[in-house]
Design brief:
about 725 residues; alpha+beta; 20 strands
């Protein structure tokens, strides 16, 4: 039988822009138990009576769009599929409706549980199942008092996840029933839930004897257009018999519920790491009917999709032919980047042909041999990476600098048409060229300011140390020689040996240019970076002096093609670096930053534009306070004032300047209440005065502390915005 003959309702859908109230109107008008949400002819959601009851219970505004509350995970089936496929999906997924689509995926209608019941009524007659066989704990009737409120009935239905509730008299004898359909109608009319349930129940309740056959129940349901009946067993217990209970009892070739596939087996499959797929074989097509959780997570497949989508058509035809021959087949299959050991089995269960597919991910096993063959190369790379991390753990800037130098060096070597081996060699040398800084004292290596002559002597030692470390490792011997000479100059004024011209190894000369280029185009604490064009010009101006003439020509071409990382900076990027940074630039007395850092910010601000405004708070007569109260009290007051500014203006950078003044740098203009500050108890008692000056750094073009101080002197204490 064709699915098309079962399609129900021409009015069982609404547009996805419709409200919940509109959805309820359609459901009650056409006496439907669900509504499909459609967008551009495609089903995108479904609302059932259970959903409406829950939303009514939660007090949701029915003026809101229904789509927001509709279930989005629909099971859709092509209209050309056989009926037994529908039955299998209903059983496997515990659902009451299947959405039917055409070949273009457009919505055609639904097939419901009721449709299946009435279709297979003849099968029901053949079985002659008694009603008492359907009575079990799961469908025992829930009974509430006749004077209970609608709200209580609604609470009970939601808590127990039941579709109907029985209303009893004072002796708990059933006198009526309230169903989900009734609740939906109440929701439509916004009935007061505090009213008694007996005012809205159906009475009397349609009942059936437990010794009758289920076909009698079906006839009653169809005649009265209901979905639930009540029965009472010999012990006096009441039960609700619904379509679900009847459907689950159907047997025979038409129903093909495949209930011999035990639920615990499905649970076992879901717990497996292997991918399990169940396929129904219809001869012309093999369609996916079920997948375990792992298969759903890893494969881009859907229920009702042809299994051939997982493989190319020719491969699946080969597999299917093997299954036809012997019923079992195994082979290794590549799916995307993964490799699977695939096992296929073909069985006939109750007249339905089923193919089981088991996919075991053997990617790691398959790649093990390849990994072993490349073991030496991997060890080389791991050692290289360990050495890089060793340097970076002491100074993050050095690590970022090393990677950039390595990249630039390789680009120059490629421009010079050097071999792939030489390009890779100079790249690795770039990564490790500062490895010798491992022995450089922290006070020198971590100092973000300018180096003293003695500091400079100490840091020069890193070249010899780097060579000494690497030359002892056979695989790094060539790299060690490049690093040994990368600070030599073409004119002989470099270090450590003072060699010149062609005496300097070619790759070392390349590394020297790349090293200088990155140093010029990276922001330092004490010096703002140069633009790419400025750096290239500097390097060209130093050809035949600091750098090799011919290499400069190729380096210019390579540098013109690179993209400078504008974020490369010596500024701290994590809490550990910030602590290191604070050691050099934190004002120990006030915990604010010091003037050196202010000077750096002003010099680099034109590149990074972190701050636009500087707000200067000047404290007057502070020397008198020190003389009157003591220097110790003065220091304590400065610390309190700094803490006040830091906490009051968290988006600003607070700097102590001129001993007893403060500067606050900010991206946006701050509303600083100087009067509120002067009225603080700690300040009011000091008998000091304070004034505020705000300067627009962008408009004034201030790029150094000297320029800022000159500007302050020129404009005095007036507002300088």
């Amino acid at each position: 039988m064709n699915i098309e003959t079962l399609l129900t309702h021409q009015h069982d859908f609404i547009d996805y822009t419709s409200s919940l109230q509109e959805a309820i109107e359609v459901m009650t008008h056409y006496e439907m138990h669900y509504i499909i949400i459609v967008q551009e002819s495609r089903a995108v959601g479904i609302l059932t009576e259970t959903d409406i009851v829950r939303l009514y219970h939660e007090g949701v505004d029915f003026g809101e769009r229904a789509y927001h509350y509709a279930a989005k995970m629909l099971i859709s089936v092509n209209i050309k599929r056989p009926i037994n496929f529908i039955l299998t999906l209903m059983s496997d997924n515990t659902i009451k409706r299947i959405v039917i689509t055409n070949d273009e995926g457009e919505y055609c209608g639904t097939v419901s549980l009721e449709d299946i019941i009435y279709l297979f009524e003849a099968e029901v007659h053949q079985q002659r199942t008694l009603i008492n066989q359907l009575c079990h704990e799961g469908n025992a009737a829930s009974i509430i008092a006749h004077n209970a409120s609608l709200e209580y009935a609604l609470d009970t239905m939601c808590q127990k996840s039941i579709e109907s509730i029985v209303v009893g008299d004072k002796d708990c004898k059933p006198i009526g029933i309230i169903t989900q359909s009734d609740i939906v109608k109440l929701a439509k009319s916004a009935i007061n839930l505090h009213q008694e349930v007996n005012l809205f129940m159906h009475t009397p309740i349609l009942t059936i004897d437990t010794n009758l056959h289920i076909n009698d129940a079906i006839e009653k349901m169809r005649k009265h257009r209901i979905r639930h009946l009540m029965t009472r067993d010999n012990d006096g217990e009441y039960y609700i018999i619904g379509l679900k209970e009847i459907l689950n009892n159907l047997r025979g070739n038409y129903s093909t519920f495949l209930e011999n596939k035990l639920k615990d087996t499905r649970h076992t499959f879901d717990a497996m790491q292997e991918l399990v797929i169940e396929v129904l074989d219809f001869g012309a097509q093999q369609i996916i009917s079920w997948m375990n959780k792992e298969a759903k997570n890893r494969l881009n497949l859907a229920i009702d999709a042809p299994i051939a989508k997982l493989f190319d058509t020719q491969r699946w035809q080969e597999i299917y032919a093997k299954l036809q021959e012997c019923g079992h087949y195994s082979q290794k299959i590549h799916l995307g980047d993964a490799i699977f050991g695939a096992t296929f089995s073909h069985n006939d269960i109750l007249g339905t042909k089923i193919i089981k597919v088991l996919l075991n991910d053997i990617t790691q096993i398959e790649t093990l041999n390849t990994q072993l063959l490349h073991n030496i190369e991997q060890n080389y790379q791991m050692t290289l990476q360990s050495l890089v991390e060793l340097v970076e753990s002491r100074d993050t800037y050095t690590g970022g600098h090393s990677l950039r130098v390595a990249t630039y060096s390789k680009a120059i070597a490629a421009q010079m048409k050097l071999s792939q081996k030489e390009c890779e060699l100079v790249y690795q040398a770039g990564i490790l060229h500062d490895i010798g800084k491992i022995v450089t004292p922290d006070t020198v290596l971590l100092n973000p300011g300018k180096l003293s002559p003695l500091d400079y002597k100490l840091i020069q030692e890193h070249v010899q140390v780097g060579y000494s470390i690497l030359s002892k490792i056979p695989m790094y011997h060539d790299i060690a020689n490049i690093i040994r000479y990368h600070h030599e100059r073409y004119d002989g004024k470099g270090y450590p040996y003072g060699i010149q011209g062609e005496e300097i190894p070619l790759l070392a000369s390349i590394l020297a240019i790349a090293d200088s280029f990155d140093a010029m185009t990276t922001n330092r604490i004490y010096k703002a970076r140069k633009s790419k064009e400025e750096a290239i010009e500097d390097i060209c101006n130093n050809k035949s002096k600091q750098f090799h003439l011919e290499i400069v020509k190729k380096a210019k071409i390579a540098f013109e093609q690179v993209e400078i990382d504008a974020t490369a900076s010596q500024l701290p990027t994590n809490p550990i670096e910030q602590e290191r940074f604070a050691y050099f630039y934190r004002d120990r007395l006030s915990n604010a930053y010091n003037e050196e850092y202010l000077n750096h910010i002003l010099s680099t601000n034109r590149f990074e534009c972190h701050y636009r405004y500087v707000h200067l708070v000047s404290l007057h007569n502070f020397n008198n306070f020190n003389q009157r109260e003591s220097w110790q009290m003065g220091n304590r007051l400065l610390a309190i004032i700094a803490d006040y500014f830091i906490k009051s203006y968290p988006l600003a950078l607070v700097v102590r300047i001129h001993g007893d003044d403060f500067a606050m740098l900010s991206k946006e203009l701050l509303e600083i209440d100087i009067e509120a500050f002067t009225h603080q108890a700690f300040f009011a008692q000091s008998q000091l005065e304070a004034s505020l000056m705000t300067i627009d750094l962008e408009r004034r073009g201030v790029e150094s502390l000297d320029e800022l101080e000159s500007l302050i002197r020129s404009i005095g204490k007036s507002d300088a915005k």
